Amino acid sequence: MSEPQTSLFPQFNGYVTVSCESDMGMIIMRGSVTAKGLGAALGTSLPKERKIVEGKEMQIAWMSPDELMVLCRKEHVADLITEVEGSLSTQHALVADVSDARAIFKLKGANVREVVAKLAPVDMAPGQFGSGEMRRTRFGQIAGAFWMTGEDELNIVCFRSVAEYMYKQLCVSATQGSELDLWT
Amino acid sequence: MLIFECPYCGIQADETELSPGGEAHLKRHGPGASDEDFEGYLFMRENPKGVHFERWRHSNGCGKWFHAARCTITLEVFGTYKAQTLEPPKKIKDQIAVKRPGWSWRTFS
Predict the structure, then answer these.
(1) A-chain residues within 8 Å CB-CB of B10?
(2) Which of A9, A38, A129, B75 is the most buried (most CB within 10 A)?
(3) Chain A: nearest CA to B66, how far in angstroms?
(4) In this structure, is residue B15 part of a structural domain?
(5) Chain B hits for A135, Cβ within 8 Å
């Protein structure tokens, strides 16, 4: 495994701050991910369709009918994979550490909703999207997924190979003076 | 702008979030098939003015293939349904019949 870097990109301070987190661990699980025993192995209940749930020192997100993603601390990844693989040993399933294949961006500020609304074809109006939901979509020309951890905090995950594109478009979208003030 | 509801994740996805997959319900004719059948499988496509069935993939979302029934004149969407089927479900056919009485498409009506 490669050495964790402190950050891929510097923090951008627009009307919303954009920062890149690179110390997050990510595990993808594909196959019979609703299998009994998986929830027990993770120590939490599994998310329902399009949801993300908080577990013990981790978050579990529903990605598609046969895919879940676990977000945790990087040092916990190896142990978690062993546990999960054990609980899925009789199932047709894949468990993979994708920490180094993805990048996570954290957006903070009162107007995080509109920074996303400018880039993705998603209804970001309060009441239409909120905490606890996971949404896979596109940002500009690349695929990405996001969830909110509060009214003024939003996380985006995308492939690391396109992280620079994501960072740059988020910075443009969050540039001071480009506020729309749609929902504030 | 076309908006389909993905039958796998329930998201109202607009066409920029999807990839088109061409005509739906094609039967594959491979080795051993007659030349006519193989030609039909490879090249012969419907080009209807009205009710049409297509395959789409929720490529920027859950990544699943699904079917959609829509009208090529008005872009009205009659409904979407999962890919694991050989013909449109009765519910979709009935919905089309309400809006386009007497419709037919290939062998379906």
Answers:
(1) 49-50
(2) A38
(3) 13
(4) yes
(5) 11
Of A50, A63, A138, the CB nearest to B16: A138
Distance CA B14, CA B25 (A): 22
Beta strands in chain B (DSSP E): 3-5, 12-14, 19-23, 51-57, 65-71, 77-82
The answer to whether position B65 is within a domain reads yes
Instruction: Look at residue A94 and give its three-state secondary structure.
Output: strand
Contact B14 A143 (CB under 8 A): no
| pLDDT single digits (tens) A125-145 | 999 999 999 999 999 999 999
Place of tokens 């879940």: A68
Instruction: Note whether B77 and B1 are within 8 A (CB).
Output: no
Does residue B108 lie in a domain region?
no
Confidence of residue A122 (pLDDT cuts 50, 70, 90): very high
What are the structural domains, with CATH classification, of chain A? 12-22+101-173 (3.30.1360.120), 24-99 (3.30.70.1520)
Cβ atoms of A156 and A107 closer than 8 Å: yes
pLDDT tens digits, residue range A37-83?
A: 788 888 888 999 999 999 889 999 999 999 999 999 999 999 999 99
Residue A105 and residue A167 in contact, taking contact as beta carbons nearer than 8 Å:
yes
Compute the count of residue pairs across chains A and B with CB atoms less than 8 Å apart: 34
Residues in A lying within 8 Å of B, measured between beta carbons: 49-50, 63-65, 67, 121, 135-138, 143
ipTM for this model: 0.87
Domain count, chain B: 1
pLDDT at A3 over 80: no
What is the identity of the amino acid at B60?
A: N
Helix (H, G, I), strand (E, B) or coil at B35: helix
